[in-house]
Design a protein that fits this description.
Elements (H helix, E strand, L loop, with lengths): L17 E4 L9 E5 L5 E7 L14 E6 L5 E3 L7 H10 L9 E3 L5 H4 L2 H8 L2 E5 L2 H5 L25 H4 L2 H8 L6 E3 L10 E5 L8 E5 L3 E5 L14 H6 L16 H14 L5 E4 L4 E2 L2 E2 L4 H23 L3 E2 L1 H8 L8 H19 L3 E3 L6 E3 L5 H4 L1
Helix pairs in contact: 8-9, 9-11, 10-11
Amino acid sequence: MFCWYVPEDIFMPLEKLEIVQEGKTNGEGTVMRYRTRKGTDIFCLGVPIFYESGEEWDLGPTFCYLVMGEKTTLIDSGQFDRYEILVSLLKRVGCDVKDIDRVIVTHSHEDHDGNLPELLADSGAELWAHYAFESMIKYHKEINDDASHPEFPGSCRCCLMPDKFNTRCRQYHVKRSNVEIGRHVDGLSAPPGRDYRLLLTPGHAADSLCTVFQEEVLFSGDTLLPTITPHPSLMLEYYVNRRILPDGYGGNNDAYGLIAYINSLYTLKTQCIDVDLLLPGHRLFEKGKINCLKPSERAAEIILFHQERCKDILNILGNRGLKLDEIALELFEPRLRKGWGRFMSQREVMSHLELLSICGDIEWASKEFMSRATGSNNYKEFF
């Protein structure tokens, strides 16, 4: 199968991203093209994300990437229930779903793997995923381990979102659980062909996977994002999910929390030095402009951000004992704490407190996640 698109300037190399179809200023419906030095066209497709009414937070669309070639590849599938929009964006660049040979999923979050069941059924494509992905999409109802939702699949067993958020996901969970994985990426065996280099980058999710293409482009999913910093997962999720993780991944916590995420950022900082362009899961196009960043530099920026965040939290604590929401109230401006922003701000604070606790810089003062600073700054040695 071969997906075709013949631009007028087919013999002219693109030096930057070119807009093929204009969408909204936040990137929804936007289609862009990038041509690598080897002449491979990559199409960037802005698939919209559904938000609950009243939510002011705008992450923008999920960017899915169509990589042309002998084996036409799609990176991510967009949010659940947005399949028809994905299909229409593919058609805009002359690609029928049946032309897709391979799908690489960056992680098991609904805005990235949401359309996999329909996409794989219609295309017959082979799915490549992190070797923990299968554990994330399957149900493990026989294992509780203090999961807030043991009836949910692995990726959502720790979900603390209000019911109005997770009710919509139940149909998605069922459909996704039947997806078949063609290649379980374990980081040990190289994928066939010379163009793809796959990196295991847990931290945002246990099964986060980044893809280097032709040593020129990095498809990062949510591990690296422009203008915003991805939310780390929590270390406590490991203790809920340790028995569902695949062999070799459940013996110690390399999957969850800010420490795992920072380690993955260092992986990208050191292994993507010569990679030119970051193609992220969100915010590639924002406020009417394209965000072109170098992956290794962006990884270094995010590492520094989290180091400064640890410093800020310790300064806020001072000599006081504070709860999560009290710290978040001082750390985040009001607009970022509206709606589900309050929940996300608390999670971010918690991820940093977990790291600071491991480093001995805070101690837990109660079972209500109240913490106190110890007076040390050992976190600096970690970073």
